[in-house]
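SAMPLE LOG
Freezer: B-3
Tube label: C17
Construct: single chain, 371 aa
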Amino acid sequence: MTIELIAGAIKAILMILAGLSLSLFLLYFERKGSALIQDRIGSNRATVTGLGKRMGMPNLGIINTTIADPIKMFTKEDFVPAGADKFLHTLAPFLSLFPVMITFVVIPFGDTISISGHRIDLEAANLNAGALYLLATIGLGVYGTAFAGWSSNNRWALLGGIRATAQMISYELAMGLAIVSVIMTFGTLNLQEIVRGQGGVWFGFLPRWAIFTQPLAFILLLVAGAAETKRIPFDLPESESELIQGFFIEYSGGKQAVFMLTDFAEQALVAMLLTTFFLGGWQIPWLMRDGFHLPGGAFLALPALAVSLMGVVAFLFKVVALCMFLGMVRWTMPRFRYDQLMRLGWKGLVPLGLFNVLVTAFVVVATGRVQ
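STRUCTURE (predicted):
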């Protein structure tokens, strides 16, 4: 029992650290990656020793984006405007970030490993109703933006908070319908079992990933997840040209940094959800517990520990690739108008989600089996 508690605590800490590390990587990718794609120089000033510059090497801006700028942000003055509700103004950033952090713990990042005769599931909290827990925690994030907009005593912040609340509630429904389709396909709410259900291949070569059986649900979750992160083209709650900075216009210092961190953490979470539900999670095509079973009958034996570690690496690779894709979407698409945003959610994604649920239910009942 003690070993299980210690292992669970370590896995929870590792997943939260992984989410924060991905957020730090996305911060760097947001600034330097976007600059390279858009033919700009980007961050290139801060250095520690200056050795690279003296050797004629380009400054990649790593110190700027990962050390200098965060330190500057967290050491700025914590400003609370006159007339604001100080308690809710302080609580709002925490309510935005906390739901994302506690959602990371139910994401399976690997299969199982055996240590001293103890089987350890590479998931911080293996819940039988993990999908329901996930939907519940994601829905809590709306309180942070609503409190931030209302407590700031600023009309632009209030408008941003109202926009964020309406947007998140609208697109959570489409996200939930996409997840329900996957749950019906695999017949379980356990995220680890959903990933395991995507093991093996069809026709001897095609991975049994849910993206091939639920392509519409994948698109729904991708679009709804991008809207939940409140980033271009769905950044109406923050739109600088209309609301300056939207719901966190009256925030500075560490509180503003927490809101920015929440945006990146949500992007990492969406990538993890897409990977878990549709891209096989930690599954690698043709890799079984004993090694690679390649098309054509070839077999490559591998130790069990190596197979488990390769699964963890594969999960991280898929998540990082999706994060980069979401980042590139942000830098290439214009912002929707507010009426277009709401129309897409209620008249586009929700009907498609309901249609997909009905088709999935018909197929499951007609065939008498799940995937």
